[in-house]
Amino acid sequence: MPFTPLHLGPGLVFKAIGGRHFSFMVFGGAQVLIDLEPLLGMIYGWDSLHGVTHNLPGALLIGTLAGAIGCPVSERVLRWLRIAHAPFTWTSSFVAAYVGTFSHIALDALMHADMAPLWPLRDGNAWLGAVSLEHLHLACLGAALLGGAVLGVRALLARSKSEAY
Q1: Could you tell me the pTM of the whole model?
Q2: 10 contacts 143 by C-beta, under 8 angstroms
Q3: I need a labelling partner for 153 at 20 to 30 A (CA). Which of 17, 46, 102, 163 fits?
Q4: Which tens digits make up the pLDDT trace of 87-110?
Protein backbone atom coordinates (compact mmCIF):
# COMPACT_ATOMS: atom_id res chain seq x y z
CA MET A 1 0.00 0.00 0.00
CA PRO A 2 1.52 3.36 -0.94
CA PHE A 3 1.90 6.11 1.62
CA THR A 4 2.38 3.80 4.57
CA PRO A 5 2.77 5.71 7.83
CA LEU A 6 5.36 3.15 8.95
CA HIS A 7 7.99 4.98 6.88
CA LEU A 8 7.55 7.96 9.21
CA GLY A 9 8.86 6.04 12.24
CA PRO A 10 12.51 6.26 11.22
CA GLY A 11 11.86 9.90 10.30
CA LEU A 12 11.05 10.67 13.93
CA VAL A 13 14.39 9.18 14.97
CA PHE A 14 16.19 11.33 12.38
CA LYS A 15 14.26 14.39 13.63
CA ALA A 16 15.23 13.58 17.22
CA ILE A 17 18.88 13.32 16.16
CA GLY A 18 18.93 16.26 13.75
CA GLY A 19 16.61 18.69 15.52
CA ARG A 20 16.15 21.90 13.56
CA HIS A 21 18.66 20.63 10.98
CA PHE A 22 16.14 17.99 9.80
CA SER A 23 12.66 18.79 8.49
CA PHE A 24 10.14 16.10 9.36
CA MET A 25 7.63 17.77 7.02
CA VAL A 26 9.97 17.47 4.04
CA PHE A 27 10.80 13.89 5.04
CA GLY A 28 7.07 13.07 4.99
CA GLY A 29 6.59 14.85 1.68
CA ALA A 30 9.42 12.82 0.15
CA GLN A 31 7.65 9.64 1.30
CA VAL A 32 4.50 10.67 -0.55
CA LEU A 33 6.34 11.74 -3.72
CA ILE A 34 8.29 8.51 -4.02
CA ASP A 35 5.12 6.45 -3.63
CA LEU A 36 3.26 8.19 -6.46
CA GLU A 37 4.63 5.54 -8.81
CA PRO A 38 3.14 2.58 -6.88
CA LEU A 39 -0.14 4.47 -6.54
CA LEU A 40 -0.33 5.03 -10.29
CA GLY A 41 0.63 1.40 -10.82
CA MET A 42 -2.25 0.26 -8.63
CA ILE A 43 -4.68 2.53 -10.44
CA TYR A 44 -3.57 1.46 -13.92
CA GLY A 45 -2.81 -2.19 -13.14
CA TRP A 46 0.92 -2.14 -13.90
CA ASP A 47 2.83 -5.40 -13.47
CA SER A 48 5.59 -3.71 -11.47
CA LEU A 49 4.74 -1.08 -8.85
CA HIS A 50 8.27 -0.25 -7.66
CA GLY A 51 10.28 0.70 -10.73
CA VAL A 52 12.07 3.89 -11.67
CA THR A 53 11.41 5.77 -8.42
CA HIS A 54 12.53 2.92 -6.17
CA ASN A 55 16.24 2.73 -7.01
CA LEU A 56 19.30 4.93 -6.49
CA PRO A 57 18.75 7.37 -9.40
CA GLY A 58 15.02 7.55 -8.64
CA ALA A 59 15.64 8.31 -4.96
CA LEU A 60 18.17 10.98 -5.94
CA LEU A 61 15.76 12.61 -8.40
CA ILE A 62 12.73 12.50 -6.08
CA GLY A 63 14.89 13.66 -3.15
CA THR A 64 16.12 16.63 -5.17
CA LEU A 65 12.56 17.57 -6.11
CA ALA A 66 11.33 17.12 -2.53
CA GLY A 67 14.21 19.20 -1.15
CA ALA A 68 13.65 21.99 -3.66
CA ILE A 69 9.91 22.33 -3.05
CA GLY A 70 9.94 21.23 0.58
CA CYS A 71 11.56 24.32 2.05
CA PRO A 72 9.18 26.96 0.62
CA VAL A 73 6.07 24.79 0.86
CA SER A 74 6.72 23.81 4.50
CA GLU A 75 7.50 27.40 5.46
CA ARG A 76 4.29 28.62 3.84
CA VAL A 77 2.10 25.89 5.36
CA LEU A 78 3.40 26.43 8.88
CA ARG A 79 3.01 30.19 8.55
CA TRP A 80 -0.55 29.74 7.23
CA LEU A 81 -1.36 27.40 10.16
CA ARG A 82 0.35 29.86 12.54
CA ILE A 83 2.58 27.14 13.97
CA ALA A 84 5.75 28.46 15.59
CA HIS A 85 8.86 26.84 14.14
CA ALA A 86 12.56 27.29 13.68
CA PRO A 87 13.46 28.90 10.36
CA PHE A 88 13.74 26.44 7.49
CA THR A 89 17.04 26.09 5.74
CA TRP A 90 17.86 24.57 2.40
CA THR A 91 20.22 22.20 4.17
CA SER A 92 17.51 20.88 6.50
CA SER A 93 15.18 20.50 3.54
CA PHE A 94 17.59 18.57 1.33
CA VAL A 95 18.96 16.41 4.16
CA ALA A 96 15.42 15.38 5.11
CA ALA A 97 14.43 14.79 1.49
CA TYR A 98 17.41 12.56 0.71
CA VAL A 99 17.18 10.68 4.01
CA GLY A 100 13.49 10.21 3.22
CA THR A 101 13.91 8.82 -0.26
CA PHE A 102 16.95 6.65 0.38
CA SER A 103 15.53 5.20 3.62
CA HIS A 104 12.30 4.58 1.74
CA ILE A 105 13.93 2.43 -0.92
CA ALA A 106 15.94 0.59 1.74
CA LEU A 107 12.81 -0.27 3.73
CA ASP A 108 10.76 -1.16 0.65
CA ALA A 109 13.57 -3.37 -0.69
CA LEU A 110 13.13 -5.63 2.33
CA MET A 111 9.55 -6.44 1.32
CA HIS A 112 8.94 -5.85 -2.40
CA ALA A 113 10.20 -8.31 -5.00
CA ASP A 114 9.67 -5.93 -7.93
CA MET A 115 12.54 -3.66 -6.90
CA ALA A 116 16.17 -3.24 -7.90
CA PRO A 117 17.16 -0.75 -5.16
CA LEU A 118 20.84 -0.54 -6.10
CA TRP A 119 20.29 -0.18 -9.84
CA PRO A 120 22.37 0.81 -11.88
CA LEU A 121 25.13 -0.59 -9.65
CA ARG A 122 23.42 -3.95 -9.27
CA ASP A 123 20.36 -5.64 -10.73
CA GLY A 124 17.84 -7.51 -8.63
CA ASN A 125 16.95 -7.20 -4.99
CA ALA A 126 19.33 -9.03 -2.68
CA TRP A 127 17.69 -7.41 0.37
CA LEU A 128 14.30 -9.05 -0.18
CA GLY A 129 13.28 -11.05 2.87
CA ALA A 130 16.41 -10.19 4.88
CA VAL A 131 13.98 -9.20 7.67
CA SER A 132 10.50 -10.57 8.17
CA LEU A 133 7.61 -8.26 7.43
CA GLU A 134 6.54 -8.45 11.08
CA HIS A 135 10.00 -7.45 12.34
CA LEU A 136 10.23 -4.66 9.77
CA HIS A 137 6.90 -3.20 10.88
CA LEU A 138 7.82 -3.57 14.56
CA ALA A 139 11.16 -1.82 13.94
CA CYS A 140 9.40 1.10 12.21
CA LEU A 141 6.86 1.32 15.02
CA GLY A 142 9.63 1.12 17.62
CA ALA A 143 11.51 3.90 15.84
CA ALA A 144 8.36 6.04 15.93
CA LEU A 145 7.95 5.47 19.66
CA LEU A 146 11.62 6.13 20.40
CA GLY A 147 11.83 9.25 18.22
CA GLY A 148 8.51 10.55 19.54
CA ALA A 149 9.60 9.98 23.15
CA VAL A 150 12.89 11.81 22.65
CA LEU A 151 11.13 14.73 20.95
CA GLY A 152 8.50 14.81 23.69
CA VAL A 153 11.10 14.88 26.48
CA ARG A 154 13.01 17.64 24.67
CA ALA A 155 9.81 19.69 24.34
CA LEU A 156 9.03 19.28 28.04
CA LEU A 157 12.57 20.26 29.02
CA ALA A 158 12.48 23.31 26.74
CA ARG A 159 9.12 24.38 28.18
CA SER A 160 10.26 23.98 31.78
CA LYS A 161 13.48 25.85 30.99
CA SER A 162 11.60 28.78 29.42
CA GLU A 163 9.16 28.89 32.37
CA ALA A 164 12.09 29.11 34.79
CA TYR A 165 13.13 32.46 33.30
Answers
A1: 0.93
A2: yes
A3: 102
A4: 889 999 999 999 999 999 999 999
